[in-house]
Amino acid sequence: MLTFPIPSDAEKAAVWKAYYDRHPTRVPLRWGVNSRVVMLDPALNSEGFTYEDVFGDPQALITVALRTKTHIARSLAPVSDMAAALPETVEIGVDSQNIYDAAYFGASLAFRDGQVPDTAPAYTLDDLDRFLAMDFSRPLENPWLAGRLRFHAEVTRLAAGVRCEGRPVRVAPLLFGFDGPLTVAMNLFGGDVLLLLADEPERAQRLFEFLSREAMRRNQALRLRAGLPARTPDGGLADDSIQLISTATLEKVLLPVYAAYMNDASNSTVSSRNRGMHLCGDATRHFPLLVERLGVVSFDTGFPVDHGALRAALGEEIEIFGGPEISLLLHGTPEACYQRAKSILQSGIMRGGRFILQEANNLPPRVPVANLAAVYAACLEFGRYGS
Question: Residue 287 and residue 165: Cα distance in Å, rounded?
């Protein structure tokens, strides 16, 4: 079994500071974690909470959210550069997983055993004109969002006197990102959106523009309600479904939509160098275009990713997040995980000091801690810069 001295929280903080100061001493490692690591692991969810419980019972939400925080501190911090100590105030949020966009636009939630929540398509292409005529101009009155705001208020009320290992608990404001116009369109209309994109690209673009505009209107209303500026400081976006289309189609139809969204939703510009995207799947062929035309300088990747080729294609100034495939972390041996992390770190991805090691993408439940420890051991050994 791989063993190594675990860095202290202060040593980990120094690694992160050096990274963000652009004088990295070592590649930092983190794990992308949400409530499913607790919810879908019977050893951590002895009560058998379901996602229907977490979406509808404020007390269940609080219990699961705090258990996720303590699980990170106790089990995942020793095998990462995440802090082992809980913060002075423990912040939790109302869990929405990845259903918030589709649900807001009218899709029904689907709860399936052993899975995170999903939605079912709510429309067909025959409904497109009717959908584009719908009124989403009063987002806080949207039936689904109004219900989530009431739920958030009840969670906030119940959490007021709760302590997590002696620390007060705070409920974060209800805020959303945007999972991207093509992805959300497919959530709502199914795979026929790709036919629309091929046969009637102008009409598809109208749909993408509508979804982006209304998602931004919703997000800005929530930010203002929380006492925040309407625009975010940095530009951020996701759109996992672009792995299904050509770069030429992306450039012609979706790139103008992305640009309008980032320009209007954030204070970022193409030249400000503070734009990022989350893109799972085999989408790396699009990355150079997104850097050049959209000003994206940070990519959160999923697999499959050739890390060395990606660094060569993008240059040393572009930030990349990524690492071993979750299937390997879940089913592989510690030695295989160690070797995979070593190969990634030695691929050339470290050139320029703009790489964060993590899973690709989002840590699943029941990953053996020994596999995570093996990746961290490789990071500590092969992720150092300089002598």
Answer: 43
CA distance 354 to 22: 8
Six token digits for residue 205: 């673009």
Token pair 């959303």 in the structure block, residue = 176
Position 2 confidence tier, pLDDT thresholds 50, 70, 90: low
Reported as type and span, the H/E element at residue 153 is: helix 143-159
> Which residues pair with residue 301 across a beta bridge?
279
Average pLDDT taken over every residue of the chain: 97
The H or E element containing residue 165 is none
CA distance 235 to 296: 8
Does pTM surpass 0.85?
A: yes
Total number of residues shown for the chain: 387
The torsion defined by the Cα of 262, 267, 269 and 275, in degrees rounded to 10, comes to -60
Beta strands 275-279; 108-110: pairing state: unpaired
Q: Is residue 316 a contact partner of residue 291, using CB atoms and an 8 Å limit?
A: no
Question: Would you state the structure tokens that stand for residue 77, as one six-digit string?
Answer: 């911090």
Q: Which of 152, 189, 173 is nearest to 228 (CA)?
A: 173
Amino acid at 123: Y
